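ok so i was messing around last nite and threw this chain in just to see what happens. nothing serious, just curious
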Amino acid sequence: MQLSIDLTGREVLITGSDSAARQAVRRYEAAGAVVYRLSTPHGAGHDGPLPERPFLVAAVNDGQPGWEGLLERCRATGIPVSAEPAAGPAGQVTLVGGGPGTTELLTVAAVNALRDADVVFYDRLAPYQELPSLTSAELVDVGKKPGHHKVSQGDIEKLMVESALAGNNVVRLKGGDPYVFGRGGEEVASCVAAGVPVRVISGVTSAISVPAAAGIPVTHREVSHMFTVVSGHAPLTEQELTHLAGLGGTIVVLMGIGTLHHLAAGLRRAGMRADMPMAVVERGYRPGQRTTIAELGTIASAAAGCSNPAVLVIGEVVRVAEANRGHAEAAADLDRLAASLLES
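result:
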């Protein structure tokens, strides 16, 4: 995590081995501190003089014995001692699922990986606005927009591998889950081919969380006992549309605004009824979140002003959300009526 205290001009002594303390040094320097280093418990590992009485001692847990005596002397003389975690392993890559774009849905493992990173390569659908409060790492924007890839997928993989081989702890922060239309498999394969250790931290997929943000359950007892997740980047074939229409249950389409017209028309040709309810949820969990609800036969015109990022939901579960919303609005009306009667 980043430091919330203003340490501008304050002398801070950071103890711990160079590799373990590298991220703590970055955090304290970013907070404006004048940083001094002590890398061995007996004082041999430092360049230049140390402060006589630092404002704070930041003790990095590097696993070496012998630090406690020094830290006890600091505490005894009234110098505050802050415990700091050791830096994450160098020379590895971690693919992190960032969820639908809000830090509230980041997993604990994701937060820890970001804290320990030296470099973060992030997408535009990840919660990148909050990264400065989650990590002191170098931040590199490699986000891709439809029709505009300022950094190609191949170049992203090359950057990740080169950074890890240079000794950095690299995080690749992606929207949703790395293995749900996130090209995570390709990035893992690139790391393995280069001999770079790699791991994956799953994220909350927008296929479930964004409909939930609009009150839509992807499954519901006696309504839908299955759901199918489809990429909306490219039009489906007639065979795929036929199979999809015949499955039943709920259909969830990610990033499907560009192919919405083709999808709706194709499902109708495949036999899906025109009055099947459909929802378009734009910017889930973000400012300006909006839900447009119509029927399969009219959704193309109803959603004419919609744009990505968006999740499409097709199925009777959309009616469940509408019914629940109606009950909630009725309850709110009753609450307002009761409050007005009490006031009168």
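not much to say yet. The two ends are 51 Å apart (CA to CA).
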